[in-house]
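Re: duplicated header lines in exported structure tokens

Our pipeline writes sequence and tokens for each protein into one text file. With two proteins the header for the second block appears twice in some exports. Here is an export where it did not happen, for reference. First protein block:
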Amino acid sequence: MKKIYTLLSIAILGSLEVIAQCNGRYQTNIYSTVDVTTVQYGSNMDLNNNVIDLFMDIYQPQGDTATSRPLVIFAHGGSFSGGSRSSAELVHFATELAKKGYICASISYRLAPSAFSLLAEETTFKVVFGAIQDGKAAIRYFRDDAANANLYKIDEEQIFIGGTSAGGILAFNLVYGDDVSKLPAQWQTWLGEIGGLEGSSGTPGYCSRAAGTFGFAGGVADTAWINGDDVPLYACHTYGDQTVLYDYGQPLNGFTPVNLYGSGPINTRMDGQGIYNHLDPYTGSDHPPFANSTPILDTTTTNLITFLYNILDCNPNNLKNPNQKDCSTFVGVDELAKTNNTKLLVYPNPAIEFITIDLKEMNLANNVVTITNTLGQVVFTQTANENMLKVNVGAFPNGAYIVNVNGVSQLFIKK
């Protein structure tokens, strides 16, 4: 009995030490009321050249005086053609986490012109990576706030992003598809046409990396993107899911002309790379698993809370890889320019009548300058030997355009 008592004492003391390290937060409810506010975090053009203002709902525990809080960003489902940041499960998760001391945000992002437009691989790619650009802008919004007004009192090193279905796809590809050289050649071209991985949805110049990710029936374009220095992941998925396959294949019952790796192969890859991850697999075909099950929703809530707590810096027993990627190695420049060791400047942006294309950093003679619209149609081309080229865009229809000089691209918006 004495031995048991001693072991229990050690266990209790250990638990008290962990609670003290995190100030009693992040595992149980310590606040009863959550305040929700809506803010605009950016804007960008959709594929129809409409300006889309981007909003998020921010959940904060009422009366919280902590000055360095983990941030959890949620993205909704809807097959990248619908859905809402106020979907019931995201409101549930954000509220439950905020009661435990987190600050949470549920974001809107740009969507496809229609579900049928996703029949084209190019459209699917541009819609998904446009949404990823919006997710990155949301992360940058909070890092900008932390560096300046500090309204939200976040810990910049503790930003996590995830979501349901399309939101999980957004998050997984944002986190693991972080190098343009990982993409197929055709995807690199399309990415250049929409402004690179970082895009121009808002708050440029800040790091857009996250410290962990999660997805409820999410997927990633290529598990080979995941390496040993990548961040942890939580997932739940049903084996028979046909909207986003648990294993590998085309989403939406084969409707979409791209392939995704689901949570099963992701889990296998992460185990092989030695990265902490947790997968809850379920029988059946519900999408997501908790769609028709309150018990599964409760289990997902509990396991998400546990997963996040297991990678918090305040937890001395956290399971993060000490060498995982963070903002210390982030370079916030256009990835296509970075790959070519060159930089292309286009200003003013947005523009009304004229743009100036600054070629001083190109270090190339006979620069071939082309401007394309979001459909990939060339609307201007010229060979330039000067350091600066001024182009009259006054007759261009309002919308987003890509300036490309010898393989280096930059997005600008014609107002």
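Second protein block, exported in the same file:
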Amino acid sequence: MSGGRTLDGEVVVSGAKNAALPMLAASILSAEPLRLGNLPDLRDVHTMLSLLRILGAVVDGAAPGSASVRLAEPKSFSAPYDLVRTMRASILVLGPLLGRFGRADVSLPGGCAIGARPIDMHVNALRSMGAEVEMRGGYISARSNGLRGARIDLPLPTVTGTENIMMAAVLADGDTVIENAAREPEVRDLADCLNAMGARISGAGESRIRISGVGQLRGAEREILPDRIEAGTYLVAGAMTGGRVALRFRGELALGEVLAALRNAGADVRRGEGFVELDMGGRRPRSVNVATAPWPGFPTDMQAQFTALNAIASGHALVRENVFEQRFMHVAELRRLGADIEPLGREVLIRGVRRLQGAPVMATDLRASASLVLAALVAEGETVIHRVYHMDRGYERIEDKFSGLGAEIRRV
């Protein structure tokens, strides 16, 4: 990448990875096809489709665009290590496998190395619903002769935990109530999908979710909501380069605190039906303090991008990470580009500099890779980013989209 260009143009926002993966897992719950539109062409989506095929699903069509998934007769109840180690969201098959078939063997998950994301909340919830769950040989082994509804108080509002419990509970006997549930838009999107399949879920998007078990689910057709993290990343790119970026999308794009932070950074932002437009008018962004929190707070998946923005903004800022304790690994790479960032435990102090300098850097996780791309857009000279396979897990055709905005970027 060669930096220094002002971005100007439009981007079509892809379907949300974090909504697509649980919806694909939900296909396990019915013998009829689940058809998903606006399915992004991502490495994680293909990994999930591969896992579903191992379980016995028939997949017609594939990303980009749409896919129909049907699991009538399972061939396996096991999610193997070779797949699960590359994508933590593989654990989302645990709840639906146990709920429909009464058995599941899922390898302990991998994914981005951004800190501890314990699965004990998933396991304890399933035990509360009557499942026998053991850890053996690196696998979560769960068995049930029929799950029962239960009251589940989550110590933290875990997104995948909430989703796994919902999918386990839709076919359980009786009512399940999840207290302190995650409220993210993707949780609500999954609940809407399950309800379209015949589930009875209320309260999704709030801290208490109630699920009344039903006898069986049917097929359905759903459109995946647009990816709010991809959208936020391109808006930050526009702000950092002093440019204009317009987003186009179908459905609800929930940006929340991200838009507030961009306005605090000095961006003019307007939005309407199916579009959001950011215009910096050639101005340098102002520093903006950020503290991550579960929805509706500032998303942890946008922390790295705002760390990059603050690196070239006027003034100084504190960025605090409250969700994952190891999510500042991009800081060392940004400092290689000339960023003035001082680590302070769970937060960093960033003193904005006018210019970064191109250098070879290495992506350590999905969102860290995005922050390095953003920094490279404003760095003098050439930046080479290694291990971009992280980026392919969550950004669809990122080099094509940035090229369309005027960036000088290519894959090597």
